[in-house]
Amino acid sequence: MTAPETADMPAFGFDNSYIRDLPGTFVAQRPARVAAPRLLRLNTVLAAELGLDVAALQPLAAQVFSGNLLPPGAEPIAQAYAGHQFGGFSPQLGDGRAVLLGEVIDSQGRRRDIALKGSGRTPFSRNGDGLAAVGPVLREYLVGEAMAALGVPTSRALAAVATGQQILRDRVLPGAVLTRVAASHLRVGTFQFFSARGAVDQIRALADHAIARHYPEAAQAGAPYLAFLDAVIAAQARLIAQWMGLGFIHGVMNTDNMTISGETIDYGPCAFMEAYAPGAVYSSIDRQGRYAYANQPLILGWNLARLAETLLPLLDADPDRAVDAANTRLDSIAGQYRTEWLAVMRRKLGLAGESPEDAALADDFMAALAGTDFTLGFRRLADAVDDPARLRPLFADRAALDLWLPRWQARRAPDAADRIRRANPIYIPRNHLVEEALAAATEGDLAAFDALLAVLADPFTERPGLDRYALPAPESFTAGYRTFCGT
Ligand code: AMP
Ligand code: MG
Fold it and tell me: What pLDDT, in 10s, does the model give residues 34-48?
């Protein structure tokens, strides 16, 4: 870090509450220096939302978002966490290739973490190199930004920087650092880290911090920690219902990848489904299909049970009463999820108000959708308001559709077509488009990435000339598609 650069550095206005509130839950860790940082992309809209001076930042962005130059007030740390990975407990994971630079208060008064990912080894790296490749960094950038535009709570991408260094995976790849913005990086696994060590005081401090940060109303409740558990359950049930409504498969719903805030985080081997199949799995590391599309609501409950376990000492001095209290909450998850999902489906199907027949109507539509492109099957329902013949050719199971449509016509809102187009995207990050963009970017050409990012920034408005972005992948691509963690 040289003095003139520091002098020109715009203020980030860091206010680092995690460090202040939670001593002993992290290690100080400077990002590694990189050889030749080159800015790939800076999210100027998000930068402005964070209150950053974009014009002043731009010339220094490669240095800052590679980790070579620390902005004033940054206090880089690696956070400790544990987690169940594919059902097996790892008592120590932690930020093995990420550092939190600090927290800022954005233009709407929300506290947000700014973190680097791929910024070198930390004490939590185990056997990993602490690095990330251009492809996975840009995948997280693209999918996160797409989710934000789709209205799904998510971490965001502030910048991507190529490091100028090569990293070794199954082959040699160009390295990169992602700058990630999140409501916080508190995870179910953060609580598990301290629970596994019997550190009840730290769990209480974590819960108090999480309440202050994400669910301040819980502090006013008669039983604040139960109210906190309820709030996380509600946020996560809403989130997973949104994923399900988009055909989104996270791929690695380990407890260390489930946030306390209710934001989606850690886009690795994730994918949006094309032909609807409840058992769809894309991730190359998910050999048992634990995190298959239709399993996600069950994993929601499983992961939240792991969170509830860590909170037991805070819920009641009497262990049996604590378990009873937690269980009443956990027993409600399936019903809460179903309610959220039904609300999503009412919007997607263009229904106004609520009717007792809606659940069956939604379930039967999903059954009729089997084998049909998930995104287009919903979106083109708008056309069926006037002319069912335009929807029919899309469907694999036309007999089921024919039985369903009259029931829906009788129930749908008069302005269903508009409602459907507002609730169902025409453009999603289709796997073949994402792979094409990442492959070109890995070779140094970001044109396809930029074009796709621009399309996905406005996913609900169908525009002329963009047909290619709305269509499913060719069969030859779909047959063998897997996403790789790329760690
Ligand atoms: P993830 O699968 O990305 O959620 O990561 C699971 C755990 O592995 C976290 O503790 C990460 O920090 C760690 N990790 C993943 N990739 C690397 C890497 N290349 N180097 C060091 N740690 C890693
Ligand atoms: Mg993770």
Answer: 999 999 999 999 999
